[in-house]
Amino acid sequence: MRLFHCASFLTALFLSAANAQIPDTPAGRQFTAWRAAQDSEDPAKIKRFLDASLPFGQVDQELAMHKQTGGFEIKEVERSSDLQIVVLVQTRNPPRQFARVTMGVEAAEPHQIARLSIQNIPPPPDPAEFPVAPLSDAGLASALGAWIGKEAAADVFAGAALVAHNGKVIFSGAYGLASRERRTPNTLDTQFRIGSMNKMFTATGVLQLVQAGKVRLNDPLSKYITDYPNPEVAAKVTIHQLLTHTGGTGDFFGPEFDAHRLELRSLNDYVILFGRRGLEFEPGSRWAYSNYGMLLAGVVIERVSGQSYYDYVAEHIYKPAGMTLTGSQPENETVAGRAAGYMHSQRGAKWTPNTDTLPYRGTSAGGGYSTVGDLLKFAQALMAHKLLDAEHTALLITGKVEAGDGAMYAYGFEDAREKDGAGWVGHSGGAPGMNGDLRMFPKAGYVVAVLSNLDPPAASEISHFVSVRLPKH
């Protein structure tokens, strides 16, 4: 999954509050400074702020955001600590969009911003109704059908959605076009690119090898990839750290990836290109989303199992789960049911194909394809312990490290459950022209799977709509 400044593929419930005060913490001060710089609409002031506090920001992006939104009115500080703040806001410009801003800062002074995301939130049926009341299964199906119908009619959602409760599908539907050029409609069997969602498959595969006694989570990478190009990195980073994004291994998206996008045909090709670089931080010292770390987890599967990553997950995950429409065939091969992806530079602009952004082939970090029905099969097989025993299933999905957005990160899964077990585990995925989300509610017995062939947050808005309307039990 590519991560963009001021874009996120998760959504959250908006809770109204008046006269919210930003706390005087490192995160709160940076939030206030960011908002003041943007509100100034002064390029020089914005640049000074970015140089000091937001190195990955761009002046033109901040100006464009302010022009589009008119700035943000603060509604509530949802969560706050010294190094993170989550603020619920509303744009000043029509249509007065609700949003959630999550900002995380570095521990060391000057506390530069390490992570900044803005999440659009679908408006509730009645803005005065906060929180949204839980619905019955029939009521949920009716409300969801009406909501998705409006999103599809407005051309901001195309894809498929499915909700199951205790194994019974209570809602399913497909909307929009799989190919706009051929006018091919999406169906429940359309195969959508899933972005980072197949990190769940990768982590499940590693835990299968752990369960079999072939891999130990605290072992260094060097034990399994003995010829890794940077021996210091391989000696320091553990399998646990790869699976939790705490290894400091960084990303691979960027100029080098773009220059070699179609040459990277195997997992080992990525190791050859990126394997000599050093660490971004000391392993285990913090959390930072790392596509490259999860790619290396796939290489571990290959070295230990003796199979290609693709053959391993097909045999040990897709087959026992009954997933017949999931895979990672190269983009230059025809997959009859695979949807085309469509992207645009801003909401409401013309949709254009995402072809020139796609890798040669999906990897263990993301980029495969699946259907909402196959994702339900995966969820059911996992929770029924057909893929792992009960002990290793719990180890897989139980949060290990704080990852922002109110969730913990487990092994290739987000864990958004509360202390009483209510809430969900799963993973989202997104990049230009693709968005997906799988949420499993173990305590309540629900599974929500949504896939889209449009930009984020097309699918995540739908899964959020369902999540906040489920009973908390």
Structural write-up:
With 473 residues, this protein is α+β, with helices and mostly antiparallel strands. It folds into 2 domains: 26-121, Nuclear Transport Factor 2, Chain: A; 144-473, 3-Layer(aba) Sandwich (Beta-lactamase). 32% of the residues lie in helices and 20% in strands. It is built from 14 helices and 18 strands. It has helices spanning 26-40, 43-53, 59-69, 137-153, 199-211, 231-236, 239-244, 255-260, 267-274, 291-305, 309-321, 372-383, 390-397, 458-467; strands spanning 72-80, 84-91, 98-105, 113-121, 159-165, 168-175, 177-179, 184-185, 192-195, 342-343, 352-353, 368-370, 401-402, 408-409, 414-415, 425-431, 434-441, 446-452. Strand 7 (177-179) and strand 8 form a beta hairpin. It is globular, with a radius of gyration of 21 Å. The relative contact order is 0.15. The model is unreliable at 1-19 and 124-130 (pLDDT under 50).
Task: Sum this structure up briefly.
The protein is α+β, with helices and mostly antiparallel strands and 473 residues long. It contains 14 helices and 18 strands.
